[in-house]
Amino acid sequence: MGALPGSANNVLMSRPTIRARRLTDLDQCVQTLRAVHETDAYPLNWPADPRRWLNPPRLLQAWIAEEVGGAVDGHVAVQRITSEKAGRHVELSRLFIAPAARRRALASALVDHIRIWAAEQEYGLTLNVTDEHRSPAVAFYEATGWRHTHTTDAEWASPDGRPVRLRHYILPSRTRPTQQDPMAETGRYEDASQT
Question: Cross-referenced Gene3D superfamilies, in alphabetical order (predicted)?
């Protein structure tokens, strides 16, 4: 008897591989990002050069969730924080999941992958997201253990010119539960325009 659609067997059989992103993946990443933007308005402002947006100057590493056939279903990156207070913290950024690949825990799998990578590298994790009412991103991060530290004004505006507020998060370490967000004092987050 075959597995029913949506059953645990189908989810396990179709679980993608998470691997380091390669240069040859960028065109598919841009296609996936375009589908996400059209569905969810992420990034809030479509970048003039999406390949460059996926490769910000402070990029440390990026990963994709890839199906067996090679389709890019998800993406996540980490980048350096440009602050003297950053210490051993990096910023999780550019997390997106193809609309057709949702409801399969890909975002959680990618974030878990980053958590393991950061722990191995001895980095703490931060991130920021736009402060929107009932934001699925805010709900996801708060449900997965990220702690909201503060909210700031972005140095960029929405497509219609309105100011944008950013919610800043830190992922508390299990060994250091009193970690502080290294950016909280300055309130400045560079290149947050599309996160």
Answer: 3.40.630.30
